[in-house]
TrEMBL record:
InterPro entries: AcCoA_biotinCC, Biotin_BS, Biotin_Carboxyl_Carrier/Decarb, Biotin_lipoyl, Single_hybrid_motif. Pathway: Lipid metabolism; fatty acid biosynthesis. Keywords: Biotin, Fatty acid biosynthesis, Fatty acid metabolism, Lipid biosynthesis, Lipid metabolism. This protein is a component of the acetyl coenzyme A carboxylase complex; first, biotin carboxylase catalyzes the carboxylation of the carrier protein and then the transcarboxylase transfers the carboxyl group to form malonyl-CoA. Residues 69-145 form the Lipoyl-binding domain. This is Biotin carboxyl carrier protein of acetyl-CoA carboxylase. CDD domains: biotinyl_domain. The gene is accB. Residues 45-65 are annotated as: Disordered.
Length: 147
């Protein structure tokens, strides 16, 4: 498929009500999505006072953040669900202890639900995604301080 056809296809997709489009034709693979990742950003606060800078750094550091934490990463592309059902608690949250093999979330791809299991044992120090985020292969889902 040449560049002009791809551009025309992208324009038609943008004007349509479709949320995702995937084309596989031999060695040609094409994927478009209107689903957006939710990215939370901390506001940037500048200060010239060194005491204020130290206090701001302490306030923005998560309670369980460590330098030695390892990530459990997404094995597939899809929509992540942090709980089994909307009315149930999350599989894991910061401060929880997980064992190797524990389910940490579910990723939906093409109407297939895949349980993601931890390959680490330790304490959860961070949840790097929000419920219903679109995740990529290798994207960190949680961080764990190993025992």
């Amino acid at each position: 498929m040449d560049l002009e056809k791809i551009q025309a296809l992208m324009n038609q997709f943008e004007d349509s009500d479709l949320r995702e489009l995937k084309i596989d034709d031999g060695d040609f693979h094409f994927y478009l999505s209107k689903n957006k990742n939710k990215i939370s950003q901390q506001p940037i606060v500048k200060s010239t006072n060194p005491i204020e800078k130290t206090e701001q750094a302490k306030a923005s550091t998560p309670k369980f953040a460590t330098q030695n934490a390892k990530s459990v990463k997404a094995p597939i592309v899809g929509i992540v669900y942090l709980q089994a059902k909307p009315d149930q608690p999350a599989f894991v949250k910061i401060g929880d202890h997980v064992n190797k093999g524990d389910t940490i979330c579910i990723i939906e791809a093409m109407k297939m639900m895949t349980e993601v299991k931890s390959d680490l044992t330790g304490t959860v120090t961070g949840v790097k995604v929000e419920n219903e985020d679109l995740v990529e292969v290798g994207q960190p889902l949680i961080t764990v301080e190993e025992d």
